[in-house]
Amino acid sequence: MSRFTGINHLAMVTGDMDATIRFWRDLLGMRMVAGLGRPGFRHYFFEISEHDMIAFFEWPDVEPLKEKDHGAPVKGPFAFDHIALGVASDDDLWELKAKLEAADMWVSEIIDHGFIHSIYAFDPNNIAIEFSAEVDSVNVRAHPVMADREPGEIAREGAEPQPGVWPQPGAPVPLEERVVYPGEGVKIAEKMKRDKDGE
Question: Distance of CA 61 to CAs 57, 64, 186, Å?
Answer without folding.
Answer: 12, 10, 26
